[in-house]
Write a structure and sequence with these properties.
The structure is a single chain. With about 190 residues, the chain is mostly beta strands. The protein has one domain: Jelly Rolls (Sandwich). Strands 1, 5, 8, 9 and 11 form a five-stranded antiparallel β-sheet that branches. The chain is globular, with a radius of gyration of 18 Å.
């Protein structure tokens, strides 16, 4: 017999999602946890926004790239964690195309590495990515919103946003006008 109702261990909201981006230029840079949390936001004014979630972890990054006829395309993802306390697996996940077969990488972070654990918004790198123009990038993320603390503002200003509206940003944390990896058409992006 249970003498009282069972304890509740967590009120956090957890949301897992695959997000897709298509590069309009070569993308070779580290993607920070701040970039990942800025992917989904709410406008708090015409020029400011707040992230929908307070923490994120990477489940996988998947990339495809088809080369121009007679050339080769190479895609690369590295969970390098090059900041003290953020050690990744240090492995280079890479593939090159052959003929008409696209280059394809499905890279998962090592268990218990920084990218595989929930991280709050910071400039620390979640992963490094190097892909040519026209690549398709899927990031499989798990977002978490604990019932503690307050909303975290986005790192870059918004332009002509509608207060209270939900928006998506580019994988590199930039607005769709300047992002090298904007979200696909058909969703509210800013």
């Amino acid at each position: 017999m249970i003498p009282h109702p069972p304890p509740i261990h967590d009120y956090s909201i957890v949301h897992e999602r695959r997000l897709r981006f298509v590069t309009n230029a070569a993308l070779n840079q580290s993607i920070s946890f701040q970039n990942l949390l800025d992917l989904l936001l709410m406008a708090t004014s015409a020029t400011t926004g707040a992230d929908l979630f307070q923490a994120v972890r990477v489940k996988a990054v998947e990339c495809w790239s088809t080369p121009a006829l007679g050339s080769v395309a190479t895609v690369q993802v590295v969970y390098d964690g090059n900041v003290a306390g953020m050690i990744g697996d240090q492995r280079i996940h890479t593939d090159s195309s052959m003929g008409i077969e696209p280059a394809h990488v499905l890279a998962r972070p090592a268990p218990r590495s920084g990218a595989a654990l929930f991280q709050e918004s910071s400039a620390n790198p979640a992963f490094y990515i190097d892909v040519p123009q026209g690549s398709v990038i899927d990031v499989l993320l798990s977002f978490k919103q604990p019932m503690l603390g307050s909303a975290v503002g986005t790192q870059n200003p918004l332009v002509a946003a509608t207060t209270g509206a939900l928006y998506a940003r580019g994988l590199d944390g930039l607005g769709i006008a300047t992002s090298k990896a904007p979200p696909p058409g058909g969703i509210s992006a800013i």
